[in-house]
Write a structure and sequence with these properties.
The chain has 185 residues and is an alpha/beta fold. It is built from 7 helices and 7 strands, in the order αααβαβαββαβαββ. The chain has a single domain, classed as 3-Layer(aba) Sandwich (Rossmann fold), CATH 3.40.50.
């Protein structure tokens, strides 16, 4: 699994993700909880755990990634990170999070409407969803162009699902980042 860590934590990728900027935009308070769906190796989960006394739900479908997340929590003495396996529904109670994050995950979802409904469920009223995705077309990193979700498609799908786009920006030469506010209860 060292290969996954090298891939996901490549210094150029980490710089482009702008972790602090993304977490700032999610606007969760010092005791607020956040759900990192598709947490991977935990770049955002570990950083979020240092920012809040609330729970950081680090979720993934991969057992290998869950092992990495548990190891990182233990090695870093993180007590507020709850590592959970996603098997369909998000393993969290209704309204438990101030913020959710999908970092380079949205394009991989087989049922985006179902995941949108699940995120709505776990977000508290007025909660925020941050989505990082690959820019359309060919870029130096990321999936083939036909597997990408353009910013306008993302906006339309999430607004149909009960969100309102609050902001959108480009992160480096490969990624865009959009923040959505929960509007539907």
């Amino acid at each position: 699994m060292d290969e996954a860590v090298r891939k996901f934590e490549n210094p150029a990728r980490v710089r482009e993700l702008q972790i602090d900027r993304v977490l700032d935009a999610l606007d969760f308070c010092p005791d607020g909880s956040i759900c990192d769906v598709g947490a991977g190796t935990g770049l955002f989960s570990v950083a979020a755990a240092a920012r809040t006394a609330g729970t950081v739900y680090a979720m993934d479908i991969s057992d290998a990634m869950l092992d990495i997340l548990r190891r990182k929590a233990e090695e870093n003495g993180i007590v507020n990170m709850s590592v959970r396996k996603v098997e369909g529904l998000l393993p969290a109670r209704d309204g438990c999070c101030r913020a959710c994050l999908l970092a380079t995950v949205y394009h991989e979802l087989s049922d985006r409407a179902a995941m949108t409904a699940e995120i709505l469920r776990v977000l508290e009223p007025g909660g925020r969803l941050g989505v990082i995705e690959f820019l359309p077309g060919r870029t130096p990193m990321g999936p083939p162009p036909e597997h990408r979700v353009p910013p306008e498609t993302l906006k339309n799908e999430l607004e149909e699902g009960g969100f309102l786009q609050a902001s959108a920006e480009t992160l480096g030469e490969n990624l865009f980042f959009a923040v959505f506010q929960k509007t539907k209860e």
